Amino acid sequence: MAATEQQTRCRVEGMDCAGCASKIDTAVPRMPGVQDVAVSVTAGAMTIKHAPKSDLAAIEKKVTGLGYAVAQLKGKPNRTFSSTAFSGALLPPNWVRLL
After folding, report:
1. How many CA within 13 A on the CB side of residue 69?
2. Residue 50, exposed/middle/buried by CB under 10 A (0-12, 13-18, 19+)?
3. What share of the chain is helix, strand, coil (3-state, %, to 5)?
4. Strand duo 45-50 + 6-13: pairing
5. What CATH fold (topology level) applies to the domain 6-97?
């Protein structure tokens, strides 16, 4: 991973087949600042490699717009999404950074 690249991992709820993962895997890399995305149906997770100033709220909005819920994975906090979905009682505000 390049020094200017960050990695954020989140849970994606509602995926139940490879087609679901493919929708996300096609849409998210088109977002500004996203270098790579890895989506796992079996783990119900998505790992995003992105520029430090990427708009994570826009990425969250894109995934929820596809019909999936996005939630935090526990661990070391990385960045927060500014979306109201992540500042309410349903989801804690911090995401994790994987080394």
Report:
1. 9
2. buried
3. 25, 35, 40
4. antiparallel
5. Alpha-Beta Plaits (3.30.70)
Write out pLDDT tens, residues 40-95: 999 999 999 999 999 989 999 999 999 999 976 655 445 544 443 333 333 334 44
Q: DSSP label at 20?
A: H
Which pLDDT value is given to residue 5? 87
Burial class (CB in 10 A: 0-12, 13-18, 19+), 13: exposed
Enumerate the domain spans of the chain: 6-97
Give the global pTM: 0.70
d(C-alpha 27, C-alpha 72), whole Å: 20
CA dist., res. 82 & res. 2, Å (int): 25
User: Which tokens hold the place of 38?
Assistant: 């890895």
d(CA 6, CA 11) in angstroms, rounded, equals: 17
Strand partners, 71: 11
Task: Report residue 19 as tokens.
Answer: 């087609």
